[in-house]
Amino acid sequence: MTRRLPAALLLLAALLIAFAEPAPAPTVKRPLALRALGPFADLYASIEWIRFGVGRREGDWMRAIEHGENALRARPEDTDGWQLIASVLFERTSPERTPDPDERLTWLRAALELTRRGEEVARDPGSLALLRALFLLRHADVDADTRFPGGAEGARRAALTSLERAVRLGDARASELLDALR
Questions:
Q1: How far apart are CA 90 and CA 128, in angstroms?
Q2: Per residue in 10-38, is it b (16+ CB within 10 Å) or e — as a string?
Q3: What is the block-wise mean pLDDT of the chain (182 residues), using blocks of 10 residues?
Q4: Which of 51, 85, 113, 182 has an alpha carbon 20 to 30 Å from 59's alpha carbon atom?
Q5: Strands (E), 3-147
Q6: b/e for 139-153, b at 16 or more Cβ within 10 A?
Q7: What pLDDT sits at residue 179?
Q8: What pLDDT shows up at residue 40?
Q9: Which of 94, 88, 95 is nearest to 114 (CA)?
Q10: What span, in angstroms and rounded, lies between the C-alpha atoms of 34 and 87?
Q11: Quick check: helix, strand or coil at residue 29?
């Protein structure tokens, strides 16, 4: 009987560890309503991602982004979510989609800011710094009428800064790209 008690305690501890929800990073501050949802926060986030997809398919960018932001409030550590919304914002920087260069710059700034916000809470902040660099490099190459401070060269310099940050955050792909660009 005495041998069974420690074995049962070990089994219970193993089950608690195996099925425990990982604790969010200490910098993550979820709204009280989402903290109260507990394990249902993931379900809420999944529903919001479905709504995001519907809004995107219907061409309602603002609604899609709003639902994506709601999903990120529920799961702020979700690196893929930050990347997805930032990519949707960046899609709008194409001269074909947005003819006005000032409006393209607004979309670019929104995408860059979103990657910065995500870096503070996401599981893989280096990926977001790398994505920011890729956005800036693409913008410098594609947007001939860029209004980015310093023009295309300013965007390239900002991209190098983002790549260096991604390297400091441990992203090996950023290191390879930085070496190739230098």
A1: 13
A2: eeeeeeeeeeeeeebeeeeebeeebeebe
A3: 52 47 49 69 93 95 94 94 96 93 96 97 96 96 92 96 96 90 81
A4: 113
A5: none
A6: bbeebeebebeeebe
A7: 87
A8: 85
A9: 88
A10: 25
A11: coil
